[in-house]
Amino acid sequence: MSDLAGFRAEVAAWLEENCPAAMRQPARGDEDMCWGGRNPVFSCPEQKLWLERMAARGWTVPDWPREYGGGGLDPAETKVLRQEMARLGCRSPLSSFGIWMLGPALLKYGNEAQKREHLPRIARGEIRWCQGYSEPNAGSDLASLATRAEDRGDHFLVNGQKIWTSYADKADWIFCLVRTDRTSKHNGISFVLFDMASPGVSTKPILLISGYSPFCETFFDDVKVPKENLVGELNKGWDVAKYLLGHEREMISAMGLGEAGVPLPEIALQSMGRDDRGLLDEPVLRARIALFEVRAAAFRAMSERFIDELKAGKAHPAQPSMMKYYGTELNKARHELIMAAGGSGALDWESAASNGGAAARAWLRTKANSIEGGTSEVQLNIIAKRILDLPSA
Amino acid sequence: MPLYLDDQQSMLRDSARAFVGETAPIAHMRGLRDAKEPKGYAPALWKQFSEMGFTGMLIPEAEGGLGLGAVEAGIVLEEIGRNLTPSPFLSTAIGAVEALKAGSAAQRGRWFPAILSGDAVAALAIDERAKHRPAATALTAERAGNGFRLSGAKTFVTHGHVADLVVVAARTAGRAGDTEGITLFAIEKGAAALHAEPRRLADASIVADLRFDGVEVSADAVIGEIDGGWGPLTAILDSVRVGAAAELLGVGAGAMDMTVGYLKERKQFGQTIGSFQALQHRAAHLYAELEVARAAILKAQQLVDAADARAEEAVMVAKAMAGLATTLAVQEGVQMHGGIGMTDEYNIGFYMKRGRVLAESFGDTDFLADQIARRAGY
């Protein structure tokens, strides 16, 4: 215990000294976060500095092994680092599908050469990854995917189309599910990695209801993928895919924790003011916010519990589905309330005062939360079957 | 501290689950109800709780107890909830013990041994109206001689008609609504001019309406500081709210387990009804709500045990969330059982009744959400 207290003091002192002031403000949306990559975009010099300092300690991925660029921290130390960063308001130095999704899958299923090649670059934010999962005809029924990879001796030849590929137009590499056997649905899928600069890869951003285009259509036309980029066994990619989905769901569930920014009650107070008792002058909205805040606080505890149980190997393997379901539904509810609290002021689409319609666009963006990474209904199916052990129809 | 039970706590859970499940299953409660048992609990079972060490869980080791905390007490309460066991555990081993921790050496010496041995039952007299509003305490305690005279009424006092000790929140200064000016008293059974009127509730538990027609007590009956009762009252409320939340969780978890079990057995249209997606999704949603409530409760218990400044609010969140989750669990339970869920013969309805009583105890979800909002400044 005293070891951990010592570690906490050391971490706090290091963060105080090394985290630039500009990185102790919450990020304003995805654009203000650091995504790394071959051509990184830093919103300020401090962002670059912060990434370099954290990466040098392995603290962009504190619980990964040191030999792969991680910090080698145990679960208790990782929690301390997270707590101290939260306490001091330190931003996450790196937002990365490599960290949140691919890394854990490579640690479990990758071979030594793949780990050595990819993990340290992920940890240092040198390669930005995207995820090639969904296809136009393979959404909730992901395993029906049709993008095919033909065996051409030393390489696979990949042809097909992915959709909803987050930031495909900005990514350097893709982890991709491909069909290597058409005679078996789940046992004919393989998990491959390739460079988005490969000949035959093209992307087309999709304009969404939010007015943004974070997702792309991604096309593969005779793309050559070296055989050594196969992760796990041929035709056993579904196991890797599911394992990675668990991590994706953990990541998405964190949305339920809410974003830094103006707290919901504060938005409502700015719109409506206080009554003569000093309470929000709209009792019905106040009650809705108060009940929401109960669930939000309870979910924060759930997130802490989930991470603790996960690190200790005590979490049910399907628990990420519960977290994803609850967190995303909570986040949608939060943004409905933000819109109600902001009133007509939250409806602006373009003005500078509204930061380019940030509230309305964020509200619309959240509607995808319960679709991406497996819909809420898919998560409920998984909970029913794998946790509650209810029978299949 | 990680947010899951440690090895010792897991062992306690296993033994509490086995003990309560074997000695006081739902049939025990049904038996007391059918016999119209006037005490509202079984003294022999309370003695067994004592032999297990449960009655002294929160009593410090130096005073003969186990010196455990809210996490451990919550483990026992969850099993009490799961089995719908009528028990003075919450009011006595938690509420009264927490009150007495603010009391004098004489008060502790008088009551801790009797609670430890399972001989004493205690009640908390806080509410005065149909809704929990502790700051609105109006029952007066006026100076009389070298003691006090208590006048007024209390309601919803669980075990109030049989309690050996009644902890009473009374007003010694200020007006109803002020947190200043409240004083706590320890009143012994049989005090003159104290009248208890028992009422059976929907869940077959018995509460009392207490009338204080000028009950005279000596100054020794004061718990803690005169006019300074709000502090210890807050500590009592933290402990019984987080305790009631744990009991509620047990009620909700018991209802869910019974319901999911039924979904796997019952056949209609030639299929097990648990294979229908309409029911699967409702059951899965319920699971999620109960998991989130469980996390909020454990978080609050750990903060209470660490005497953390955030504990009071975490307790409010825990009780409010437990109210939401268990209210859903018992309603889904009855609905998914269909017609049989409406029968007295089947146990699922008992969960609904017990859930309602506990949701109302020591502040319901609405009250607590309002309190949380006020603390957040809106």
Task: Please count the beta strands of chain B (DSSP E, at least 2 residues each).
Answer: 10
How many helical stretches of chain B? 11
Q: Structural class of chain B, please? A: alpha+beta
How are the strands of the biggest sheet of chain B laid out side by side? 1-4-5-8
Q: What is the rounded distance between the termini of chain B?
A: 32 Å
Counting structural domains of chain B, the number is 3
InterPro entries (chain B): Acyl-CoA_Oxase/DH_mid-dom, Acyl-CoA_Oxase/DH_mid-dom_sf, AcylCo_DH-like_C, AcylCo_DH/oxidase_C, AcylCoA_DH/ox_N, AcylCoA_DH/ox_N_sf, AcylCoA_DH/oxidase_NM_dom_sf
Cofactor (chain B): FAD
Domain Acyl-CoA dehydrogenase/oxidase C-terminal (chain B): 228-376
Keywords (chain B): FAD, Flavoprotein, Oxidoreductase
Features:
heterodimer, A: 393 residues, alpha+beta, Butyryl-Coa Dehydrogenase, subunit A, domain 1, Butyryl-CoA Dehydrogenase, subunit A, domain 2, Butyryl-CoA Dehydrogenase, subunit A, domain 3, 3 domains, four-stranded antiparallel β-sheet, 43% helix, globular, B: alpha+beta, four-stranded mixed β-sheet, 11 helices
How are the elements arranged and paired?
The complex is a heterodimer of chains A (393) and B (378).
Chain A: H1 2-18, H2 45-57, H3 75-88, H4 97-109, H5 112-123, E1 129-132, E2 148-151, E3 155-166, E4 173-179, E5 189-195, E6 201-205, E7 215-226, E8 230-231, H6 237-253, H7 264-272, H8 283-311, H9 319-342, H10 358-366, H11 376-387
Parallel strand pairs in A: 1-4
Antiparallel strand pairs in A: 2-3, 3-7, 4-5, 5-8, 6-7
Helix pairs in contact in A: 1-3, 4-5, 4-6, 6-9, 7-9, 8-9, 9-10, 9-11
Chain B: H1 7-23, H2 26-34, H3 43-51, H4 70-82, H5 89-101, H6 105-116, E1 122-125, E2 140-144, E3 147-158, E4 165-171, E5 182-188, E6 194-200, E7 206-218, E8 222-223, H7 230-265, E9 267-268, E10 271-272, H8 277-305, H9 311-337, H10 348-360, H11 365-375
Parallel strand pairs in B: 1-4
Antiparallel strand pairs in B: 2-3, 3-7, 4-5, 5-8, 6-7, 9-10
Helix pairs in contact in B: 1-4, 4-7, 5-6, 5-7, 7-8, 7-9, 7-10, 8-9, 9-10, 9-11
